[in-house]
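Q: My labmate handed me this sequence with no annotations at all. I'd like to see what the chain might look like in three dimensions before we decide whether it's worth expressing. Could you predict it?
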Amino acid sequence: MDINKLHYFFQAAELKNFTKAAERCHIAQTTMSKYIAVLEQELGCKFFIRSGKSVSLTRQGQLFYEEMRKIAERYQELCQELQRMDNLELRIGMITTDYENFPVLRAFEQAYPDISVYFSFAEEEKLLADLRQHRLDALICPNILTLEQYGLDEMERVDLITFEESLVYSKELLENYNSLQGVVASQPIITKASEETYQEFCRTQLKELYGTTFSDVLLVKTISQQLLMLNLSRGFAFLPSLFMADYENLEFFPMPPEFSETAQLLYSPSFVSSGLQGLLDYIHENK
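A: Here is what I predict for the chain of 287 residues:
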């Protein structure tokens, strides 16, 4: 079976007419009929029911069409992946946009100007799907991201940079509740992390540190939404301490190292393009 000629079969199945399918494929009608006959003989079953000038799929033909469509699509994707593995390109998805400064990426681009680096921004689910399908080489994500729910347990992580975190709330909330403990006990945590394991970690750590914790969670999608809710006194959040100088109306209380967040490079060890391998080597050499 010549996989490159499967589109003959697909066109015949979709157009339900050998003559029209042949015209679409730019071949003679006799060539189309001969191809279908050889294919049926090779696999030992009839794929088409002939009725005058039109044709329709048998049960075997319908099954073959549905499954071979999937195989053909995957074959095309695989060809593209194999070509990309030797390309000097690096495609990185950005799950976290909290941080604007990744020195290692800037230094890598300066050290290897022949490798073109492209960045993608989208919803977490979309980026993870693109990584799984090898449309992206890697993702930059926070270490709090858990992968079990996405079926990505086989992925590897490399630390890029660690940020100290602060517990943040408005000065208005501090005036109303008099202390950090009062704010935590009465207000929800405002977070982008939907993972229950992270939320439970925060509850447990706050209870151990301050003798109290939160009950409610206010989920947001972006750090801009997080900051808006903080400024509106809708709760408290954990943010990088580097934001402290930019928001005079917010209180920043530095947290211990357990709350530090690390931005990581997430990738599949089974698909490492030349560009990604160059970045991984550079990171390990400059640790």
